[in-house]
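DUF5107 domain-containing protein: structure tokens wanted.
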Amino acid sequence: MRTDAPAPGPEHTPDEARTIRLPDAPSDLAEALARGGAVAWEEPVTIRTYESGEPSVHPMYFDHRVYQGSSGRVYPLPFVEHVSDEARDRPWQAVHLENAHVRLMLLPELGGRIHVGLDKATGYDFFYRNNVIKPALVGLGGPWISGGVEFNWPQHHRPGTYLPVETRIERDDDGSVTVWCHDHEPFERMSAHHGIRLRPESSVVEAVVRLHNRTSLRQSFLWWANVAAYVGDDYQSFFPEDVHHVADHARRAITAFPAADREYYGVDYAARGARDPGSDRIDRYHNIPVPTSYMVVDSQGDFFGGYDHTAGAGVVHWAERRVSPGKKMWTWGDAPFGHAWDAQLTDSDGPYVELMAGVHTDNQPDFSWLLPGETKVFSQFWYPIPNLGPAHAATPDAAVNVRRDGAVVASFAVTSHRRNAELVILRDGRISARRVVDMAPGVVARIEEEAAGDGSPSVELRSADGSTLVRWTAQADDERPEPEAADEPPSPADTATVEELYLTGLHLSQYRHPTRSPLPYWTEALRRDPGDVRTNLALAERELRVGNYAAAEALARTALARLTRRNANPTDTEAFYLLGLTLRRQQKLDEAEQALGKAGWDGTWAAAAGFELAQLLAHRGRNRAALRVLETLDGVVGHDPRRAGLRTIVLRRLGRLAEADRVLERALAEDPLDATSRVLAGRSRPTDAGVLLDVGFELLHAGDATGALALFEEVVAAPSTAEGNFRPVAGYAAASVLDLLGRSREAEQHREHAGRDLRRAFPNGLDALDVLTAAVERDPADPVAKHLLGMLHYHHGRRTEAMALWGSAIDLGLEHPVLLRNAGLAAYNVAGDDDLAWRLYERAVAADPDDARIRYEQDQLAIRLGHDPATRLERLAGSEPIVLTRDDFTIEYVTLLAGHGDARRAHEILTGRRFHPWEGGEGKAVAAWDETLRSLGLAPADPPANLGEARPRYTAPAPVRDDGVTDYFATSLPDLLLFSRE
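Answer:
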């Protein structure tokens, strides 16, 4: 029997009163939409919203925080620790895309995520539509929301997931529309564009991505598109049929797929399956009772997705496997523990799973590299499928499900109208069934054999011109051995060779391991072979990143001494490149020119070295020489938007204005949101203070002091944002330029004003380091410059220098609560001076008595200093209103009350407020609840819903071993870890 019917509507029906109302297309676009065109427009949408809290005024030095299996460091991003318990209707900026088949809505203020993806043919939200903005404390920087599609880079979850992006709507000659979103990530200041594209008459959603390393150093990164999908009891995730095993984070565990055959996340699936056949199938949401991830280990397929058998609809992701091997499913688990997290993230929209697609990555954490100036370009595609069943093969044109219980039944769905499409079933290459039909998105076309035939089956969907739209072939028996789980590397002393020591250190660095440092491995490598080239260069780059220029230079020269002893022209010139960077930072400009020139002899480093050399020449006023270098790069090395800006500056100095304008026009046509090009063109300039500061330094490096000064002064006048306060650094940068221009009085005014507002002023990057270092050298009595420079040094691991700078700033009379808190932290961690640490925290509390974080950290310090519980309780009881403003502080207080004071008051607090647990930090509120019931003599009971968490049914892998050491493969450990003795 053949059916050609649209899929039924979704099972999920959210609260109609709270459903997001999508506006109709404006009248000037409605006609184009009616004709089958694709349209896009900007129009605010009101969404019920729980606001995130104000970011902390204190820098967070989470050196050993484990987050998604990699480093959870957040500096210089201000950290958010609170979310509101009350919702309000709030208008959000929104960009809408629509054609005849799908409707999308993007939220630029939340990282440019796709918030709505609706299949107009079936009424199915193929991306989970969360009808409320309800952040939970899941994100790297604090708040995170579920639903839609989140684009995660350069690590997971995206540092800018709660930061705004700039957008631009682009309409192409082929009728497609693209909404470009530009992200300037807050850590290394790299640049990313993701464009969401719809084409006329196609149900495919395309993400066009450009990742650009605009820095001078190689940077690690990953890219995961995180798609949320509604789930119910009959939801199934599907992978290509050649997937027989899946892996946990970092491949710490492996299991068979789709039926798990061993313990996974503490659940013995083999035993479950033996008791209840089918309950071992981890492709089914309702079989997974605990928070669980699994990722494809190896597959030759380009697609995967999810299908809701009850709703009769699903979603497919497709991307070329050569760049996009990552295919992952994540769930909170279908059990009370997971349902508690669902309630943290939505009011009425229920559970979801994440179907995550990784590009240049296949696991988490799994980082690749971007060379200096490199741009990586790729696309990802999604589309809804109607009542097809899980896809067994898929392309951007079509998907197919094949039923093989006897005669073959093939069900096809297409992404655009196909007249006279040919459906074919073959046996050993011979046609056993054929059908011709007109096809359209949202409608399934089926074909089946009259009877089961002999031979290996395959099915095809062909267009009217005979081209194949999708093909499925029965998989041969797979004899591949089971993949091995990863293991922890041996200690440096037990590592056999220098090469292994180098590579282990490289792995720890590249993958941003949160609790293991590469330094012991590299130090041991140099102990065995002081001249090892690779290790010296790895350490040189590390020292350069933290501003230890002289040390970096010495290491690079050691590498070069061996590298060039017999071969003056090495196959890899990274050593010359790093030497050139360190020399330039030390103002050894002639030597820097020579090193960068030689670095350009190697194709790997030609683009990066050529740009750095041209910029240096321009900075020195040698404009024609700079232009010649840029011209040698044209057509030889990859696209680098930085070159257009530098070329424009040089051409303008040479009076070639028309040519400069043409360069900018071409640059903006290719990268319409590139910040430097827009500034130079004076067109739709960025307003973000951090971006303007970066562009200012870029102009300064090219010798455009006047242009840089204008930007620095603009930043000085700009308000601080959720990304931080850039005014103090901009003020010192402006002062340094004014000194160069001989305007010393104005320079002094900027230095005096730099300390007016230090809230959330967290300096970052080598340019800021150089400016602040120069300010301290110019005026050793400037406490603000020392305070700021100390923060940057502490972040870089230069802790002794940071402690000295903070101590000097305090001695100079700067009684700032953040400074005093920072100094107290350093006194405990670095100096090991418990008395000094306590005195500094006492002074910090006195400087800002209402700062709950300072008081909470002081209590954490009291625990480490051995203060007895009664003393701690007395201290906290005296400031209970402040204590109760923080969940973590409240739990400490309640635990003290239950064990050493008033258990009834503890019970009253626990039942009278809402708690918001950190992902991975669950259990603390439940432990306080249990302790309180014991103290009251009450029987054990399940925690109330307001605690925000439920008891897990299974024990997850412990992040901390019995010996107190964090497990090498720990994926989450949200503890403070600020107090960590070095």
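The domain at 394-473 is CATH 2.60.40.3870 (Immunoglobulin-like). Confidence is low (pLDDT under 50) at residues 1-12.

Cheers.
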